[in-house]
Amino acid sequence: MVRKTIVMVIAVTAVIAFVVSVFFTSLPRGGEIPELVIHLDQDKCNRCGMLISDVRFAAAMFVEGELDFRKYDDIGCMLAEYITLDKDMIMEVIVHDYVSGEAVKVEEAWFVVAPRDKLVTPMGYGVAAFKNLEDAEQVAGEYGGEVMKWEGLVDKARHILGEAIPHA
Q1: What's the count of helices (H) and strands (E) in the chain, helices before strands?
Q2: pTM of the prediction?
Q3: Engineered SS bond to 106: which of 81, 144, 150, 168, CB 3.0-4.6 Å?
């Protein structure tokens, strides 16, 4: 009887140890960024709570210490949070190409900022991202917009976002 109890305790302990080790090895380690997966019409915007339904305007940001990307339905929603965070904590920011829907790191993307009534985005910020400069220039021409890199977009954030963010 004692022997069965000891065997049972060892077996339960082994199962618990296995489950705990699987859980902790599946978590991102320091500096490790998980794969971005956006489930259209299921994932909600981290800022406004709307469902992400159009990948062309979707954006994501991975912040140190978190387990998954923060996801956004509009580049403007992501930008509003980005400018309020400590930049040392932001490990990766991803947008999606307006033409193909392909994920692009912000450092590699081109952005078009156009009048909100011309380039209609989910939350009305009028910002789209592009993998190729030529595509960005074409869309900017069509909608009367301006082409810029990420740094320029961040510099213009308060103008783009208007009163949607608190003033520092």
Answers
A1: 5, 7
A2: 0.77
A3: 150
How far apart CA 60 and CA 71 sit, in angstroms, is 4
| Phi, psi values for residue 132, rounded to 5° | -115, 135
Helical residues (DSSP H) of the chain, grouped into ranges: 2-26, 75-82, 133-143, 150-155, 157-161
Q: In the chain, where are the structural domains located?
A: 55-164
Spell out the residues 6+ positions from residue 70 whose beta carbon is closer than 8 angstroms to its own.
Answer: 46, 60, 61, 62, 63, 78, 81
Cα separation, 104 vs 8, whole angstroms? 52
Burial class (CB in 10 A: 0-12, 13-18, 19+), 37: exposed
